[in-house]
Structure formats: structure tokens, C-alpha cells
Design a protein that fits this description.
By secondary structure, the chain is α+β, with helices and mostly antiparallel strands. Helices cover 30% and strands 37% of the residues. It is built from 2 helices and 3 strands, in the order βββαα. The chain has helices at 47-61, 63-68; strands at 10-17, 20-28, 35-43. The protein has a 3-stranded antiparallel β-sheet. A hairpin with a 6-residue loop joins strand 2 (20-28) and strand 3. The chain is elongated.
């Protein structure tokens, strides 16, 4: 959804606690002026849905603008 690659300022971190996956992601504008964070939590079996949810949240916050400056 974000269309990011390994050259873009995007980070993700996940932890597992009793079958619950907690996913956090962060996008940083290249100029450092904007930092966006999003997270989601749910059953580990929904890992793909959680990733899509976090991606959508980041897009709603303006991640596409942050990432566009790196393409």
C-alpha cells in the first residue's frame, strides 16, 4: 500500500504477546520535518490485515507525501 522499498525512511517493529501481534510502523520525511507513527494489534493469524491497517493509517496521516520525496 505504501509502495516503499529499502531506500525509503520507513520502519516497522512487531512484538508477540500471548498470540497477539502488536505492530508499529514509522515514516520519516527525508528532510526530517515530519514523523508519522501508526500501530495496530490483533491475533497473530491476522498479520497481513494488521500490516494493511497500519499502512492505511500511515497513508491517512500523509505518508504518501513523505515517501514521494524519496522516489
Amino acid at each position: 500500500q505504501l509502495g516503499a522499498d529499502c531506500h525509503m525512511p520507513l520502519a516497522a517493529f512487531a512484538t508477540l504477546d500471548g498470540g497477539q501481534l502488536h505492530l508499529k510502523a514509522r515514516v520519516l520525511a527525508v528532510d526530517g520535518q515530519q514523523l508519522l507513527d501508526a500501530e495496530a494489534m490483533g491475533p497473530v493469524e491476522r498479520w497481513s490485515d494488521l500490516g494493511a491497517e497500519v499502512g492505511c493509517k500511515l497513508l491517512e496521516l500523509g505518508a504518501d507525501d513523505c515517501l514521494a520525496t524519496t522516489q
